[in-house]
Write a structure and sequence with these properties.
This protein has two domains: 2-128, translation initiation factor eif-2b, domain 1 (Four Helix Bundle (Hemerythrin (Met), subunit A)); 144-365, Rossmann fold (3-Layer(aba) Sandwich), CATH 3.40.50. Helices cover 42% and strands 19% of the residues. It has 13 helices and 18 strands. It has helices at residues 40-48, 55-72, 76-87, 95-107, 112-151, 176-185, 202-214, 226-231, 257-267, 287-290, 299-302, 352-358, 360-365, and strands spanning 2-3, 6-7, 11-13, 20-23, 34-37, 157-161, 190-195, 218-221, 237-240, 244-246, 251-254, 271-274, 280-281, 303-307, 313-317, 330-333, 340-343, 346-348. Helix 7 links the parallel strand 7 and strand 8. Helix 1 (40-48) runs antiparallel to helix 2. The structure holds 5-S-methyl-1-O-phosphono-5-thio-D-ribulose. Residues 53-56, 163-165, 169, 175, 202, 240-243, 253-254, 329 line the site of 5-S-methyl-1-O-phosphono-5-thio-D-ribulose (MRU).
Length: 366
């Protein structure tokens, strides 16, 4: 992706060859700043504080977190400590555990002298694989947008998305946004309804910002507006991301996704999930029963942060003093509400047999 005409990824190796640069997403959309991570603790802090966020990017950041730990100390104890500390940062997105597993496999049985180089090589591969997977998802999903444009005789296609499953949630391109960027780049007229995504406003702050950077027309809507738009034929398709999908195709994504799926089902609007394979957890089946849902601090619900007219960033309380708030960060959309899964291996049904047939090597490994 380009920011002000310059190409960026969300995570990179710094010129010193070992420290890690990331975009600080807590500052967007008001300031575009990067920060340098030099230790395991800093990597864990970046994930926990949501400096980096989004399931695929969390995975890549965890992989580089292992590199930073081994750069300081390449012992078995250091590897175990790093994996435990990083795994504890956020509970729901499965890419975190997938990436830690990949890193442990890549380094554990090597002599100490080879571990650091092996770790950095695998982390780089995880980052590059994410970009390739998202580009492939984009090539699959663009066909749906193209077909919708053809049905509408070339009138603009309206896609609704929730949260930020964009460039910023991944290493590059995004999952849900991959099809949108591909369509836009091919000259297909596409417009995006962006759910604001309370409480942290990843849609309003991040998705709207990155779509603007790429020149894709978009409209931010209140979270509760989607159903109304769907009833009035103003949404052609919904495309969302996912933080963990189960073996039977249930999808856990940012809180509020389930309500969009219900509205889409009721109104006959196709509901697609952009699903990179590292986000599939073949060890779970029933998403509602088995996926741990992150609960975050109540202040994300009780307060809002924004920029004042004179350019100051301020946080204000929006509830009565002392109000009790609960903050569930994710919900589960059952497979029956999903029209299809956009994967790097094609458009597949949200069903156990379809997922197993598309990713047989993952079944074999368990
Ligand atoms: O809590 P976040 O911001 O890390 O949540 C992740 C997300 O952005 C979404 O749930 C997204 O749709 C899936 S990640 C591609």
């Amino acid at each position: 992706m380009k920011v002000d005409g310059k190409p960026w990824r969300t995570i990179w190796l710094e010129p010193d060859g070992w420290s890690v640069g990331v975009i600080d997403q807590t500052q967007l959309p008001h300031r575009f700043v990067s920060t340098r991570l030099t230790t395991l603790d800093e990597a864990a802090w970046a994930i926990k504080s949501m400096v980096v966020r989004g399931a695929p990017l969390i995975g890549a950041a965890a992989a580089y977190g292992v590199c930073l730990a081994l750069h300081a100390d390449a012992s078995d104890e250091s590897l175990d400590r790093a994996c435990a500390a990083l795994a504890a940062t956020r509970p729901t997105a499965i890419n975190l555990r997938w990436a830690l597993d990949q890193m442990a496999r890549a380094v554990r049985n090597r002599p100490r002298g080879e571990r650091v180089a092996a770790a950095y090589a695998r982390a780089q591969e995880i980052a590059d694989e994410d970009v390739a997977i998202n580009a492939a998802i984009g090539r699959v999903g663009v066909e749906l947008i193209e077909a919708a444009a053809a049905r509408k005789n070339g009138a603009r296609v309206n896609v609704l998305t929730h949260c930020n499953a964009g460039w910023l949630a991944t290493v590059d391109i995004g999952t849900a946004t991959a099809s949108i960027y591909t369509a836009h780049d091919r000259g297909i007229p596409v417009h995006v309804y962006v759910d604001e995504t309370r409480p942290r406003n990843q849609g309003a702050a991040l998705t709207a910002w990155e779509l603007q950077q790429h020149g894709v027309p978009c409209t931010v809507i209140a979270d509760n507006a989607g159903g109304h738009l769907m009833q009035h034929g103003q949404v052609d398709l919904v495309i969302v991301g996912v933080d963990r999908a189960t073996s039977q195709g249930d999808v856990c994504n940012k809180i509020g996704t389930y309500l969009k799926a219900l509205a889409a089902h009721d109104t006959g609007v196709p509901f697609y999930v952009a699903l990179p394979s590292p986000t599939i957890d073949f060890s779970t089946r029933d998403g509602v029963a088995e996926i741990p849902i992150e609960e975050r601090g109540p202040e994300e619900v009780t307060h809002l942060t924004g920029m004042t007219a004179d350019g100051r960033i301020e946080t204000v309380r929006i509830v009565p003093e002392g109000a009790v708030a609960a903050n569930y960060a994710f919900d589960v959309t059952p497979a029956r509400l999903i029209t299809g899964l956009l994967t790097e291996r094609g458009l597949i049904a949200a069903r156990a047999d379809a997922l197993a047939a598309a990713f047989p090597e993952r079944i074999a490994k368990g």
